Amino acid sequence: MRHRHKKGRLTVSASHHRAMQRNLVASLFEHGSVVTTVAKAKSFRPFAEKLITLARRGNARKAEGTPAGKAAHLHAFRRAAQLMPHRPAVRTLFGRVAPAVGDRQGGYTRIVRLGKARIGDRAPLALFQLVDKPAPPAESAPEAAEGAKKGKGEEKAAKAKKGKKAQAAGAAE
After folding, report:
1. What is the H or E stretch that residue 158 is in?
2. pLDDT digit string (tens) for 77-129?
3. Burial, 69: exposed, middle or buried (Cβ in 10 Å; 0-12, 13-18, 19+)?
4. Cα–Cα distance, 29 to 52 (Å, whole number)
5. How far apart are CA 68 and CA 107, in angstroms?
6. Model pTM score
7. Which residue stretches of 102-151 are H helix?
8. Which residues contact 97 (CB under 8 A, 6 or more apart)?
């Protein structure tokens, strides 16, 4: 019986379902959107929304500036890390995604049907994305300017040159 169960299992075991859920939502937070099947997007949407709400409330409590607020933020961060152990995605969630949603009271994600089907099994595809795109991570100005000047070939050449200098210094000693 399926009493009080809103979503299906997607015909996989519970541990596989949990792993898929964590991986897909982590990718959603890191990239802002993910192409997946409609069934997966519908199944994992409540999990993503709950994590965003958790992060939004944790950040709001931290903004209070009180020791209790900082403790509440830490608790929210640890709870999110427990639910989704992909640490970089949790940092992205609290650092970029939650501030981007602002005071929105829900509906942080959208599912856009692409009208295409996956080649292997004809499963309908959808774009699972965040409604409010988070700002890209800010790079420091000198590093960004240096990265823009050098191409990939120049970076490899610089690394090789450093490696030869280190070998020469090691041989001299």
Report:
1. helix 152-172
2. 999 999 999 999 999 999 999 999 988 899 999 999 999 999 999 999 999 99
3. middle
4. 9
5. 28
6. 0.75
7. 141-149
8. 29, 52, 55, 130, 134
